[in-house]
Target: LLM class flavin-dependent oxidoreductase
Amino acid sequence: MTASRQLHLGAILSGVGTTQNGWLHPDLPGDASVNIDWYIDNARKAEAAKFDLVFIVDSPYITPDTAPHFLNRLEPLTLLSAVATATSRIGLAGTLTTSYWEPFNVARQFASLDLISRGRAAWNVVTTGLEGAARNYGREEHFDHKLRYARAREFVDVVQGLWDSYEDDAFPRDKANAVFLDKGKQHPLNHQGAFFSVAGPLNIQRSPQGQPVIFQAGESEQGRALGAAIAEGIYANAESFDQAQEYYADVKRRATALGRNPDHILILPGLIPIIADTDEEARAIEEEQNGKLDLNKALVQLGRPFNYHDFTQYDLDAPFPDVSHLSLNSYKGRAERIIRTAQRDNLTLRETAWRFAARANPFVGSPKTVADEIERWFLDGASDGFNLRVTNPADFAIFVDRVVPLLQARGLFRTEYAHDTLRGHLGLPFVQNRHARAAPAAIAAE
Amino acid sequence: MTASRQLHLGAILSGVGTTQNGWLHPDLPGDASVNIDWYIDNARKAEAAKFDLVFIVDSPYITPDTAPHFLNRLEPLTLLSAVATATSRIGLAGTLTTSYWEPFNVARQFASLDLISRGRAAWNVVTTGLEGAARNYGREEHFDHKLRYARAREFVDVVQGLWDSYEDDAFPRDKANAVFLDKGKQHPLNHQGAFFSVAGPLNIQRSPQGQPVIFQAGESEQGRALGAAIAEGIYANAESFDQAQEYYADVKRRATALGRNPDHILILPGLIPIIADTDEEARAIEEEQNGKLDLNKALVQLGRPFNYHDFTQYDLDAPFPDVSHLSLNSYKGRAERIIRTAQRDNLTLRETAWRFAARANPFVGSPKTVADEIERWFLDGASDGFNLRVTNPADFAIFVDRVVPLLQARGLFRTEYAHDTLRGHLGLPFVQNRHARAAPAAIAAE
Model:
């Protein structure tokens, strides 16, 4: 840990919000998820607060019962390209699945976003949890969980290979001598792998940060292995300090074992703080929110990581049902955590639904209490920062106005941007082009 | 022809330009193709001139010898999303191939651009001419020409079906009664076709213009048939008035035969005017430009529609070679036109290369001469407007400052936008949702 180590903060922008009832908040425009002005306004607020990045989650499959934001929303790449020219410093992270895209198209669109934003793009790599997505893409069955992760690994390799199609000085653009391209600095990829064959070269140069940042989110064995191998940022779960600390240590250990610098894989748990003047008031707000929860919606939410398994068929007051017959091919890590928690704590189905609907929240209290807990997670090996998951303007404002200044006073968060690129904000190095010859500095040192 | 019929003008924005030497112009920044500010600036100029739309061409395959713009450039969807929030009225047309994308992703991104721009998106449907593209997408061989067009037809059907996933009033967003979605107005597609199986529904609502406008460009038999069936705008070739008139009549006839309103398929030939104070000066500029052409680059350009066939292997001063052994699976219509022209006019290979490098240009002269020729094409059944293909700022400015006012004075072009959507500008009707019940007006008339 260096003296200058600081928190990294992301703001998840999700329109009307990813829960079933969040859209009912009186301050939230009902069309927030399809209104580009809403996104631009919130990205500018996050930039004014010196956040590292905004983050767009995604899913390519819906049913009539899907939560409002996912039912009807802007697509991440087009959305972030529009936000790019309305902002100047904040990073732009978009989610896109490796299961139903072509690597060439993905490489091209993120590289384009990276140039449009002048080095602020990140790709959150997901494999898609919901099995129904397959039928939107010509397949009867979703790829098996293990296969999805193997494909994702190769997919990212291909994309990163395409991103190095041109060395950074490939384009002299010398009009006097009529030399646009230095042809020796254009490199085809000629990838032939288990899942993809891609010749290249990509038709776009690199950005001021070299390559877009790679984010990932995965709790399962395969998810952690993929994250340790490829991720530079991880959007993690924040159920409790202990769970976060175990995850943090495990992923950093795995990355180190792969020869990576563990400081170059930043772990940012989701943060949904409930903040009020006093701890008592904040607790009261939490209780009121939980009191408004609807059991049927909680059961739908519980079923989602099990590929929308119907939990209403079981006795609510019997122990959490045996679901060992389910394939757990969807959001496997989350489903496993639910089963594990229910068994460990001897929960009934009803209790399990409430537990996960109410989302055990470690960040409830006064601004000082929340800042203290953030500091504890940051200093005691549970996180490198957080991805703020609030939907309502007031919830964002109270965090920015009352918690962030405390973190800044403690030297834990920047008061001004020191860099122009997302890699700069995150303390990640510029990605050297794999084809570049030894840098002049190295040659001079010989 | 109605009294109010007016020209439609598009501006093709292509950075440093799609020719080999265009980037050498002293007024053109060498990085124009990867500089979003360049695109925003030029889109705003086209909007200030009241153009209907800007147009982005595309190709997903390059070699070291590809023309500068295609070597290194922003991707159309991300580019146009960034331009969308920097403009307010002008239409935004982007090219995307049906050969190497998933319909669900294409439907989603164009729908998102359509919402971001508040009803100004258009999709230029292409099938990709260059066979090498296949190897960027896991295929050894490019789809056969006929197969490409069959796939394109079904692809567009699927995309348009997905665009109607929600009826226009599907989202009451009624907070008082907690009704976000009217579930009866969400419609899966359940498409099962020869090439694609897509269940839907799409996770995004329709825009103020109902659906994005469909553009297409195709000269071959299959290209014309597809355009007549699906296109609402066609980016056509403008070699000569006679050729344009034949094409215009043929495509309108085909569309009419399919039961379509021929006024709802607008034909916009490419326009590369050479304008000076007098006709003599303009002719002199044309001759000077042609004098600068390089025979080797002309031969590369000649080979492109033949999938970059190497024409340097033949005797330059013998008759145009027999290329009947080539499959013409690339830009088939253009290749056929080159062969036809060379045979008809008994051209040598050298003469053929010059003829197509120099691009026989019907629009050379004083502002009045060019305006007269535009008017003749428009009134005598050769076009519904034009897609302006100039790269240099001065060439755009002279057209806007000296030709457009003449067209406006003759009542042939708008002096102010009368609509907010691209369909409005083009005189195309709002696309009714296929699932909507009879409109109230129709019910009232019974």
